[in-house]
Amino acid sequence: MLARAAWRRAGAALGGPALRGFAASPLESTAKLYEEIVDKSLKEFQANEKTVSADLDAEISSSKVVLFMEGTPDAPKSEPSLNAVKMLTEAQVVPMTSVNVLAHPAILGYTVSKTQKRRTPHLYVNGSFYADYDGLMSQHTSGQLKKLGTEATKSTGTIGGELPIATY
C-alpha cells in the first residue's frame, strides 16, 4: 500500500501518469447523465414543438403500433429497447413502426413530454400511449401483450404457431 501511494505521489509530482480514480457509484453517475440528456431533449422539443409534434403526431395516428425506442429494431441501443422488440416480436405485433429517440433530441423530448415517463421505450397503440418498459414487461408476463399480435403472421407446419423462421 505504501509503495502504491508513494508511486502515485511521485508520478503526479513529476507530471507523469497518476492512477485514475473511478466514480464511487457508476450507476448514479449514469442515471444523472441520462437525466441531463432528458432535460436537454425536453428543451429542444419545446423550442421546436410545432414542427416536431406535427410530424410525430401524424406518424402515431397513421400507424397502429409505434415504438419509440433507443436505436432501431435491428440495432437496439439499450437493453430495455432490445427486450421490448423481443416481446413485441414474440407477440407477433405487426406491422409496427419504430422511432429512434436518439436520432434527434427533440424526438426524445416529444415522447417524454407526451407520456410523462422519462425512460424509454414507449409504445403507442391506435394513436395513444399504451405502455412504457415496465408496462410492457407486466403485459408480456401476464400474456395480455399477445392481444396486440396477429395470428396471420404465424407459421404453420412443423413449427406451427411459432415465429416465421427459415429451416435449413
Automatic annotation (TrEMBL):
PROSITE patterns: GLUTAREDOXIN_2 (PS51354). Gene3D superfamilies: Glutaredoxin. Keywords: Redox-active center. It comes from the Eukaryota. Coiled coil: none annotated. InterPro entries: Monothiol_GRX-rel, Thioredoxin-like_sf. This is Glutaredoxin-like protein. The lineage of its organism: Eukaryota, Sar, Alveolata, Dinophyceae, Suessiales.
